[in-house]
From TrEMBL:
Organism: Brachionus plicatilis (Marine rotifer)
Main localization category: other
Name of this chain's protein: Nucleoporin seh1-A
Localization, UniProt: Lysosome; Nucleus envelope
GO annotation, biological process: cellular response to amino acid starvation; positive regulation of TORC1 signaling; protein transport
Molecular-function GO terms, alphabetical: structural molecule activity
Family statement drawn from the similarity comment of this UniProt entry: Belongs to the WD repeat SEC13 family.
Length: 340
């Protein structure tokens, strides 16, 4: 595989908790415990250039970009609050400059927010939040011209989870949209994976038939982009790497056939993500390795491994990005959240 790693000296003063690429893979946002979000653009020489810093009064946990159809919007989570930022133009003529403006703060969570994701563009400008107490809320901005106004359209999806660690939307517009929620609860009898199906007519969510695919805590999950496929593929980061194929049952609402492949790993998996077309899966584990996987005639094989360096994860505030796969993987230190 022809690829290269580019290290970015971020000048963050504390651990980087999350990074996120924009839709085109041309921009990166880094969220750190040093109370800042930094935004980077890639130039014509494939170099990542610092663009802007957004300051907060608390350590930041998660960051996500909205689909560019709705403008340049960024959601940033810290503790129980999410800030919505929008990039706007200032000045006129030659003095015009772009800058980020805080539009709105969402204060409704009763516990620490653990993950947030913008919905696929087919659902409009929506944002799902999940929290440490198991709360799951969905917000919507009905007027994309005015990103100051958001409303809760689903104040609490009934998950019965004591803790919700991660969330992911499916993206194929030819299939019903699914929302997957994972739990990092350590009790082996508790439900670790819950999937909701979105009803296009009622705009409501219904839980699909329970699929017991995992008994270990789930730390991350991600739906693959379903390019030309009539089924969903879900990757799950847990004690092992799990890949689920989810097919709807004809004429049986909210029932799906779920087939799970378990890829054994020498270390626990902490992060998973896909490339743009869903052909390559990246997994990050707590042995400081990122592995790239590909499906070869119904058999998943690891075709590349990226090894972390020997520096202490507790002193590393830099990140490394693959120039060949800008949207394929994020390489976090699994236990601390720091990227390396």
């Amino acid at each position: 595989m022809n690829s290269s790693l580019k290290q970015i000296h971020t000048d963050h003063k504390d651990l980087i908790q999350d990074i996120a690429f924009d839709f085109y893979g041309k921009r990166v946002a880094t969220a750190s415990l040093d109370q800042t979000v930094k935004i980077w653009n890639i130039n014509e020489n494939n170099e990542w250039v610092f663009k802007e810093e957004l300051r907060h009064n608390s350590g930041l946990q998660k960051v996500a970009w909205a689909h560019p159809e709705f403008g340049n919007l960024l959601a940033v989570a810290f503790d129980r609050v999410v800030w919505i930022y929008e990039e706007t133009c200032f000045g006129t003529g030659r003095s015009t400059q772009n800058g980020w403006v805080k539009r709105l703060a969402l204060h409704d969570s009763r516990s620490t927010i653990t993950d947030l994701k913008f919905a696929p563009k087919y659902l409009g400008l929506q944002l799902v939040l999940c929290s440490q107490s198991g709360e799951v809320k969905i917000y919507e901005c009905n007027d994309i011209i005015n990103s100051n106004v958001w409303s809760i359209i689903h104040p609490d999806l009934r998950t019965n989870m004591s803790s919700c660690s991660s969330c992911s939307w499916s993206t194929c517009f030819k299939l019903p949209i699914l929302l997957a929620l994972g739990s990092d609860e350590t009790n082996p009898t508790s439900e670790k994976l819950i999937i909701f199906e979105h009803n296009e007519n009622t705009r409501q969510y219904a839980k699909i038939e329970r699929a017991q695919v995992c008994t270990d805590p789930i730390r991350s999950l991600a739906f693959a982009p379903s390019v030309g496929k009539l089924y969903h593929t879900l990757a799950i980061a847990s004690k092992s790497l799990l890949i689920c194929t989810i097919k709807s049952m004809p004429r049986e609402p909210y029932r799906y056939q779920v087939n799970t492949i378990k890829l054994e790993s020498e270390a626990s998996i902490w992060r998973v993500c896909w490339n743009t077309v869903g052909s390559v899966l990246a997994s990050a584990s707590d042995d400081r390795k990122v592995k790239l996987w590909k499906n070869n005639i119904s058999e998943w094989k690891c075709f590349a491994t990226i090894n972390g360096d020997s520096r202490s994860p507790f002193t590393d505030q830099n990140i490394k990005l693959s120039l060949a796969f800008p949207k394929t993987f994020e390489a976090p230190n699994a236990k601390t959240g720091a990227k390396y």
